[in-house]
Amino acid sequence: MTQPSRLAIVPFVSVDRMMKLVLAIGVERFLTELAAYIEEDFRRWELFDKTPRIASHSHDGVIELMPTSDGKMYGFKYVNGHPKNMREGRQTVTAFGVLADVGSGYPMLLTEMTILTALRTAATSAVAAKYLAPKGARAMAIIGNGAQSEFQAVAFKALLGIDRLRLYDIDRSASEKCARNLAGKGFDITICSTGQDAVEGVDIITTVTADKQYATILTDNMVGSGVHINAVGGDCPGKTELHRDILLRSDIFVEFPPQTRIEGEIQQLDADHPVTELWQVMTGKAKGRKAPEQITLFDSVGFATEDFSALRYVRDQLQATGLYEELDLLADPDEPRDLFGMLERAAMQPAA
């Protein structure tokens, strides 16, 4: 069988290679370097094509496409969110992504993004908290201790120095799993019996639950002055985690308002309720945390530029690590106009 040409080959990072890549670099270093790429692209915000993700909703969940381009490279992610999957032994969220060259349209990378999405979500949370959390923050509550929780904890430790965690989940075994996975990683961990208990004395509250419904994970009385709320779980229409009154007391920061107003916590508010875009804070166009008693809320739904940053970062690691496979993905006939002839000639080649 004729070997494919170099133009036919696209680097492919499988789940196995992604895990090896993250471990070869080190989880904290990976998150720190990825966060730098995310922040760099937020600072270039005005260069990017921006559109709310394209979502197909069903009773069981959602399937989404998240595209963007900076004019030189194009990236997209396919991602689903199906909370019922856990009961069937499957992941709630799975994803893969593509990075392509705008000039030729040729893909430059195809990669798993289930693991990578968990990493980029945590890195984005920590980047936002750099600008919004109280100075000297050390303690964080994580409410919802599923697949994302450990990544959030490690990212906040790597970027902000968080070393005290208070964990709560309606399923205590999830909190025990989280504590087990984070043992020996420099945290003082407390498993709490209620959400109210979890938020006592913390500087940052992270909510990262999975149910696809309006929920009240945090009630108004649970949130005191001066905290930063990292609201991760409310990320599609009809799915929220915070009581509306908390939003009314908070200064709210978002990624892309047209998407967040549909999917985020602010879907509970009037369409003209004031919010601040995160890129404006990073570039100095707007203020982040202004006073010690201020409640800041990062209404995180995830945006395509963050996936673009993650794809860029992974591609930049491949040459040094070699942790990818060569995928024969693109048809490349000897004569570009003779695709049919390429097919016909394949019939005359001996089987591999």
| Structural Rg | 22 Å
The SS-based structural class is alpha/beta
CATH class descriptor of the largest domain: Alpha Beta
| Mean pLDDT across every amino acid position | 95
Major beta sheet, specifics? Answer: 8 strands, parallel
| CATH architectural type of the largest domain | 3-Layer(aba) Sandwich
First-last Cα distance: 5 Å
Order of strands side by side in the largest beta sheet? 9-8-7-10-12-16-14-15
CATH superfamily of the largest domain: NAD(P)-binding Rossmann-like Domain
Kindly identify the CATH topology of the largest domain.
Rossmann fold
Shape: globular
How much of the sequence lies in strands comes to: 15-25%
Helix share, percent = 25-40%
Overall strand count:
17
Q: Helix segment count? A: 11
SSE order, as H and E?
EHHEEEEEHEHEHEHEEEEHEHEHEHEH
Protein name: Ornithine cyclodeaminase
Family: Belongs to the ornithine cyclodeaminase/mu-crystallin family.
InterPro entries: NAD(P)-bd_dom_sf, ODC_Mu_crystall, ODC_N
Pfam family, one: OCD_Mu_crystall
Could you explain the architecture of this structure?
The structure is a single chain. This protein has helices at residues 15-25, 27-43, 114-132, 149-160, 172-182, 195-199, 244-249, 257-263, 278-282, 304-321, 339-346; strands at 9-13, 54-57, 62-69, 73-81, 95-101, 107-112, 139-143, 164-168, 188-191, 204-207, 214-218, 228-231, 240-242, 251-254, 276-277, 296-299, 325-328. It is an alpha/beta fold and 352 residues long. The protein folds into 2 domains: 6-115 and 305-346, ornithine cyclodeaminase, domain 1 (2-Layer Sandwich), CATH 3.30.1780; 131-302, NAD(P)-binding Rossmann-like Domain (Rossmann fold, 3-Layer(aba) Sandwich), CATH 3.40.50.720. Strands 9-8-7-10-12-16-14-15 form an 8-stranded parallel sheet. The protein has a 7-stranded mixed sheet with strand order 2-3-4-5-6-1-17. The protein has a two-stranded parallel ribbon with strand order 11-13. The protein is globular, with a radius of gyration of 22 Å. The termini are close together.
